[in-house]
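Extended Data, panel c. Modelled sequence:
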Amino acid sequence: TSVFQISGPTGWLIEGFVITGGGGGKGGGLSVDNANGVVRNCSIEGNWTTAFPGSRDGGLGHGIFVEQAALTIGRCTVSENRLPNAQATSSTGSGIYALNNANLLVQNSIVADNEPAGIDCGSGCNLRVINSVVARNLGSSNFGFAAGIIFSSEGSCTINGSTLVGNHSGGIYFGGNGPQKIENSIFWNFGPEIARGQPEVNACCVRNGYAGTEVVSAYPEFVDPTS
């Protein structure tokens, strides 16, 4: 089961926990349904979602799952959340999975080494990633894009002051046509940096370049590229 399951209340706060070892069908570490709240100063690591009955596919949100709620994730690390079953082939799972009109804010956080994606949003969700790092997420052999962020929602997506680096199948994939804006960010991954969509891109460093305003493609000289 999930380590934390929250449904209904508004204004809750989870702070200062290491959330690990969970294995729910929706959200191994944290499952949030119709309950606005905040996760702050936490480490969400080593969680997974159980397979759907009769399927090898994983569930939704190995680390965190949220639907029909506003969730703020601040000063957290979401890492190494993945299926223990190496034969599972799901495109879902991921470090953070948002669905059904969720409003997700990831701020001053690290989302790294999850599988298949760092952040996955669909079904009317709105996403903001601010001053955060999305790194080294592992991708899926069945879905060759965007191990960093998958945004297949008709809602809005804003990436600001963030770094997407070393993700194995690319930076971000847009599957919807809502407002999309990327500013003051770095994209340096394995695979397409910004796939599909028509985001407004300003003041960014993008490997191989991208149409936008003040977009550069020179190597960003990471202080510690192996970390």
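The longest strand covers residues 70-74. This feature is highlighted in the accompanying rendering.
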